[in-house]
Amino acid sequence: MMKKLSIVDTTLRDGEQCPGVVFFPEDKVKLARALDEIGVSEIEVGIFDRKTEGREYLSKIMHQKKHAKISLWSRLNPVDVMEACRQKPDIVHIAVPVSYVQIYSKLNKNKAWVEKQFMECIEIANNFHVQVTPGFEDSSRADIGFMIKLAVQAEKMGIKIIRLADTVGIFTPVRAGKLVKEIHSHSSIMIEAHEHNDFGMAVANSLEMANMGAGLIDCTILGIGERSGNCNMYDFIHACEVHFDTGIDKRSVLKIEELLSGMIKPDRRKFL
Questions:
Q1: pTM above 0.85, yes or no
Q2: Rounded distance, CA 252 to CA 236, Å?
Q3: Of 27, 86, 103, 104, which has the highest C-beta tally within 10 A?
Q4: What are phi and psi of 81, to 5 degrees?
Q5: Where are the domains of the chain?
Q6: Hey, what long-range contacts does 198-201 have (CB within 8 A, 24 or more apart)?
Q7: pLDDT per residue as tens digits for the range 25-39
Q8: Topology annotation, domain 3-220+244-268
Q9: Between vectors from CA 230 to CA 27 and to CA 134, what angle results, nearest 5°?
Q10: What is the DSSP letter of 250?
Q11: Closest by alpha carbon to 27, among 251, 260, 267?
């Protein structure tokens, strides 16, 4: 029997960071409905901002979806997490900076600050009874010991899944798989793989992380995303056919690719 894998779609969040791609609220609702119909386990619909039209499209998606869980992305900020939780999604993804570049150079903070914010944000979400998936941001350049420490802390606080994000797209399959194996040697927490395609390795990295025990794989339709894009859903599902059961027929993904292509203006398709 093939191992079951869950597909997390982030077209509506990370995919929208592709140059030239902007989704109208009605586009997001249509795409979310289509993704739900083909069997995607989770749909990351964006970053909630109460100053935009986000509240309206999120409400529509939540009411129309039948199977998939709906998630919102949030910074490691208690106010942002609280606001996201108030929208009552199924899941809130909290981006947790774990590399020294992110912590010290970008944020001018330290690891103690990250740990404190981390625990406070999880506690807020738990109080709202909203599932949390901490996303270890820039995990491909991070200290493995620090990530293991956070994973163990998260598991003790009731977290079931952590996302390993190759934020700058520099993983190779061997390194990506080794990270999953190392974390699993210290914690039984489930791992979600989030790969970027800067060196054309997103599908290969995701496949090896699944081989090493990751149970959830992040994808986008057409592989769109910031810079060179994310793990292409069609390509990943095709590569999985003899190894894993994703529960998704790759032919159904082609129909959503057509839907997405119709939403992108012709002069902007050159960016894809």
A1: yes
A2: 14
A3: 103
A4: -65, -40
A5: 3-220+244-268
A6: 198/168, 198/169, 198/170, 198/227, 198/228, 199/169, 199/170, 199/228, 200/228, 201/169, 201/171, 201/172, 201/173
A7: 999 999 999 999 999
A8: TIM Barrel (3.20.20)
A9: 90
A10: H
A11: 260
